[in-house]
């Protein structure tokens, strides 16, 4: 296997586990949002948040994560499940607008044996795909190239999620549902 040096990722590796060895998603959920850009959090909803994967399979690989620390999908509260899927839909729409991928891989790896890196806190992966993104490099060279820095991807996506936050704030106001329905 060819080795590609990526020294900028060391800060993510060092920060990967919390100081007490706890769940990285719970650590993100517990913050007040002041360090969202550093943590690559794009959006905070009532029950879930959207964060970029710091070890992406492809450019703009996102995850939708419930605040609740739940591993078992069948134990997930229906309101949380609803917001998780709604944010998945909205994230796909944002990625279609900003990146125009040819397709998506969506899914969860439930349990370590299924490939979950963080098995105790379920999360939805959203991986944009393009024709030709699986080329000779990963197939022959056993090397995956991500053509855009995480910070650049964050800068491209954050305005779209900020607009989503604005729209969500307006829909929380009395009478906003009937106003939105009439538009």
Task: Give the key terms.
alpha+beta; five-stranded antiparallel β-sheet; 183 residues; HIT family, subunit A
Which regions contain 5 or more consecutive residues with pLDDT less than 50?
15-19, 173-183
Instruction: Decide which structural class fits the backbone.
Output: alpha+beta
Principal-axis shape equals globular
Strand content: 5-15%
The structural domain count equals 1
Mean pLDDT: 83
CATH topology category name: HIT family, subunit A
CATH architecture: 2-Layer Sandwich
- Assembly level: single chain
Distance between the termini: 55 Å
Lateral strand order in the biggest sheet: 1-2-3-5-4
Number of separate strands? 5
The number of helical runs is 7
Specify the CATH class: Alpha Beta
Question: How is the main sheet built?
Answer: 5 strands, antiparallel
What report would you give on this structure?
The model is unreliable at 15-19 and 173-183 (pLDDT under 50). The chain has a single domain, classed as HIT-like (HIT family, subunit A, 2-Layer Sandwich). Strand 1 (41-44) and strand 2 (48-52) form a beta hairpin. Helix 4 (78-99) packs across helix 6. The protein has helices at 10-15, 24-30, 36-39, 78-99, 136-139, 150-171, 176-182, and strands at 41-44, 48-52, 62-66, 103-107, 124-129. It contains seven helices and five strands. It is globular and about 40 Å long. It is an alpha+beta fold and 183 residues long. A five-stranded antiparallel β-sheet has the order 1-2-3-5-4. Helix content is 39%, strand content 14%. It starts with 9 loop residues before the first helix and ends with a helix.
């Amino acid at each position: 296997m060819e080795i590609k040096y990526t020294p900028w990722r060391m800060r993510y590796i060092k920060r990967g586990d919390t100081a007490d060895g706890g769940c990285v998603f719970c650590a993100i959920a517990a913050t007040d949002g002041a360090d969202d850009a550093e943590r690559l959090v794009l959006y905070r909803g009532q029950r879930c948040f959207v964060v970029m994967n710091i070890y992406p399979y492809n450019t703009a690989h996102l995850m939708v994560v419930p605040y609740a620390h739940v591993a078992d999908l069948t134990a997930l509260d229906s309101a949380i499940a609803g917001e998780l899927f709604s944010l998945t839909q909205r994230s796909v729409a944002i990625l279609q607008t900003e990146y125009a991928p040819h397709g998506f891989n969506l899914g969860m790896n439930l349990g370590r044996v299924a490939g979950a890196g963080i098995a105790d806190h379920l999360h939805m992966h959203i991986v944009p795909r393009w024709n030709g993104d699986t080329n000779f490099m990963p197939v022959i060279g056993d090397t995956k190239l991500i053509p855009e820095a995480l910070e650049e991807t964050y800068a491209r996506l954050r305005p779209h999620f900020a607009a989503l936050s604005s729209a969500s704030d307006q829909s929380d106001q009395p009478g906003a549902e009937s106003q939105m329905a009439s538009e």
